[in-house]
From TrEMBL:
<feature type="binding site">
    <location>
        <position position="328"/>
    </location>
    <ligand>
        <name>Zn(2+)</name>
    </ligand>
</feature>
<feature type="domain" description="tRNA-guanine(15) transglycosylase-like">
    <location>
        <begin position="37"/>
        <end position="389"/>
    </location>
</feature>
<keyword id="KW-0472">Membrane</keyword>
<feature type="binding site">
    <location>
        <position position="240"/>
    </location>
    <ligand>
        <name>substrate</name>
    </ligand>
</feature>
<protein>
    <recommendedName>
        <fullName>Queuine tRNA-ribosyltransferase catalytic subunit 1</fullName>
        <ecNumber>2.4.2.64</ecNumber>
    </recommendedName>
</protein>
<keyword id="KW-0963">Cytoplasm</keyword>
<keyword id="KW-0328">Glycosyltransferase</keyword>
<dbReference type="InterPro" id="IPR036511">
    <property type="entry name" value="TGT-like_sf"/>
</dbReference>
<feature type="binding site">
    <location>
        <position position="170"/>
    </location>
    <ligand>
        <name>substrate</name>
    </ligand>
</feature>
<keyword id="KW-0819">tRNA processing</keyword>
<comment type="subunit">
    <text>Heterodimer of a catalytic subunit QTRT1 and an accessory subunit QTRT2.</text>
</comment>
<dbReference type="InterPro" id="IPR002616">
    <property type="entry name" value="tRNA_ribo_trans-like"/>
</dbReference>
<feature type="binding site">
    <location>
        <position position="213"/>
    </location>
    <ligand>
        <name>substrate</name>
    </ligand>
</feature>
<keyword id="KW-0479">Metal-binding</keyword>
<dbReference type="GO" id="GO:0046872">
    <property type="term" value="F:metal ion binding"/>
</dbReference>
<comment type="similarity">
    <text>Belongs to the queuine tRNA-ribosyltransferase family.</text>
</comment>
<dbReference type="GO" id="GO:0005829">
    <property type="term" value="C:cytosol"/>
</dbReference>
């Protein structure tokens, strides 16, 4: 059980821990730690089975994964995926999903699920949203009615969905916004975290993760880390990044966060899914990732490969009988050629499904290789080989990645 040891000296924080401390349905076992970087390989045990980390979590919408079935996802070795609270909370609605034995029953997915708070979707999808201390007010895109998503409401929906990991409602500010609004959002997110903790009806079955905010301001982020890590939550997410900020700011905020997060709890970096970002952020100490990119890009015919991406629609593949990636073990690469997928793309959406399967397999396989290299004690070498394969020449290495890796003692030759 992950109960957080009471090592803090402040009386105030002791009493806070006592009132909020509940045995959580999550165990994190650290299997190996990289002796050079901050990377670690763990086993995260959740109510629907064990998850090996570092892990990439594919994103579903409306309870279904676009372009892939739950059986296919399971067969690829996926042990945790994301459900979308905003869409599910609107339609078909939490009551129906509760009747269907939660989102697991509704989707017929036997593995773990993580649900978001719904807040981010609202702020990014709904134009007319307004944030007050109460919550996020917005007009329903379905019937125009005004709806308030409060921390309590978000947790109530996620309790109905029955996800293994729930996310707190946070006050989302775009990562490119600066000034007093960032500070306000950070403090409000802390207050909302306490309301979410109090609202959770199933602390013995569902894990609530806090989301570290503070924008690109190191002092604010540090203050948020100090405050949130005093709460006895089962895990922490690093939020408010991957929103178009400079990559240099991005990695510095990630590494600042992992420096101050407790070693014995999982660390989830939200919205990150490019291969380079994944490998670098594992080196910076993150365990969990999610992103719509691999599945979204598949629908445009872009297949992810160790040397970048392959655009199936391009003419050069019309007569190419090789699979997308000759080294890939996924069902698409075992069965179909680039030429076949190229032809199929012209007439049939099935091509998108085949590429979606390949792309999710690519992400999961990448993370398994990363993990194995950490376990074997050769993660720095893995990074060098990975970078060489992805970039044709050294001068194409993104400078932020070079700097980020150097900060954890990995020099790229
Ligand atoms: Zn493949």
């Amino acid at each position: 059980m992950q109960c957080g040891d009471d090592t803090t000296t402040s009386e105030n924080s002791m009493s806070l821990k006592k009132t909020l401390s509940v045995a959580s349905p999550l165990t994190l076992r650290i299997v190996a730690e990289c002796p050079v970087t901050k990377a670690r390989a763990c086993e995260l045990v959740l109510p629907h089975g064990a998850v090996n980390t570092p892990v990439f979590m594919p994103v579903g919408t409306q309870g279904t994964m676009k372009g892939i079935t739950v059986d296919q996802l399971d067969a690829l070795g996926c042990r945790i995926c994301l459900g979308n609270t905003y869409h599910l909370g609107m339609r078909p609605g939490p009551d129906l999903i509760e009747k269907a034995r939660g989102l697991h029953g509704f989707m017929n997915w036997k593995r773990n699920l993580l649900t978001d708070s719904g807040g981010f979707q609202m702020v990014s999808l709904v134009e007319l949203s307004e944030v007050t201390e109460e919550g996020v007010k917005f007009k329903s895109p379905y019937d125009g009615k005004e709806i308030l998503l409060s921390p309590e409401k978000s947790i109530s929906i996620q309790n109905s969905l029955g996800s293994d990991i729930m996310m707190q409602l946070d006050d989302v500010v775009s990562s490119t916004v600066t000034g007093p609004r960032v500070e306000e959002a950070m403090h409000r997110s802390i207050r909302w975290l306490d309301r979410c903790i109090a609202a959770n009806k199933n602390p013995d079955k569902q894990n609530l993760f806090a989301i570290i905010q503070g924008g690109l301001n190191a002092e604010l982020r540090k203050a948020c880390l100090d405050e949130m890590t005093r709460r006895d939550v089962p895990g922490f997410a690093i939020g408010g990044l991957s929103g178009g900020e400079e990559k240099d700011d991005f990695w510095r905020m990630v590494t600042l966060s992992t420096d101050h997060l407790p070693r014995e709890k999982p660390r989830y970096l939200m919205g990150v899914g490019y291969a380079v970002d994944l490998v670098v952020c594992v080196a910076l100490g993150c365990d969990m990732f999610d992103c719509v990119f691999p599945t979204r890009t598949a629908r445009f015919g872009s297949a992810l490969v160790p040397w970048g991406s392959l655009q199936v629609k391009q003419k050069q593949y019309a007569k190419d009988l090789q699979p997308i990636d000759p080294d890939c073990q996924c069902p698409t690469c075992k069965r179909h050629s680039r030429a076949y997928l190229h032809a199929l793309f012209k007439s049939d959406t099935a091509a998108m499904h085949h590429i979606t399967i390949h792309n999710i397999s690519y992400q999961l396989t990448l993370m398994r290789s990363v993990r194995q290299s950490i376990v074997d004690g050769r993660f720095p070498d893995f990074i060098r080989t990975f970078m060489k394969r992805l970039f044709p020449s050294r001068d194409q290495y993104p400078s932020w990645a070079v700097d980020a890796l150097a900060s954890v003692n990995v020099t790229l030759e």
